[in-house]
């Protein structure tokens, strides 16, 4: 008589619900097996000298085979069943070095066996995945502003499980920037331009000089985003604009407007001034500058709204475009001549989008106009910015043509 006991390989606790099959090795016949539920033992009756092959299994366990040869006496055998453990894959993402975990990384995992593709976001820079079946994986790790890393990993699942670790170190991505300036009228390169970059994230301004006849400056940046680019060159108006740095290569061409020639201005007599402006204005009457058209900003009556028709900004931005400078120079000249005038700059938008954001944008654009006039010598105390947003439309906001009319900047003499 041979008895068998099935136990857990780790705890040695008897296993309930196990199964046992016993085969005579010589005849290959399956022998009858009896089970005692009280002792939780299996028993088989065999002749002396018999050799047996046995297979034992239970739910949640791996099957176990055993060969018994030349049995000559009563024996009790213990068969240990093993619970299979899953394998675990741990992916850890670091910024440049293994000492700095990188949050918000993205892991894309593709199985070469099933073709299944999964994507995971790692808020803490760590991913854990368990596997109960072997797999062959292609893994790509990426993060915004960093180079990506790829690796192929084989996942084995032995009975005791296996730990597979992948430490991904991502390098900072470099973004190429090429800047050059050209003359707005002739389209020729301005070779000695100077460029200053400011990142809204707060980095220190970076000044770049075009030192060759080609006028190009090549820079490497590590942060995506919208930069403020200021361009200066001898004999040209200063240019300030926003530049979006989003791609691996970012070419930026700046158009510069040549400064008008400086000419001496002689005051005219009172009668000549009145004749020039054609009507009475509040404050001292004006006289014409050589760089200002005689009919520009002439009718400066208190309370009258005067629209600035040649003011341009970058899209959804308060940054003035160079095309605006000519008209603003004319306004600055008029304010210089009318030294007692105070004006209110009013900005208007259409009704598309958020009201608060539109109002803020209109106010910021007015402030950009004021900042420009101050740089031209107009006293800050004479200027006031008011953002009206969509409150004062000139036309119904029912089509793009009308909305374009409502997007405007004007001023009122106070």
Automatic annotation (TrEMBL):
Its main location: membrane. SUPFAM superfamilies: OmpA-like. It comes from the Bacteria. InterPro entries: Bact_OuterMem_StrucFunc, OMP_bac, OmpA-like, OmpA-like_sf. Pfam families: OmpA. It is found in: Cell outer membrane. Residues 301-414 form the OmpA-like domain. Keywords: Cell outer membrane, Membrane. This is OmpA family protein. The lineage of its organism: Bacteria, Pseudomonadati, Bacteroidota, Cytophagia, Cytophagales.
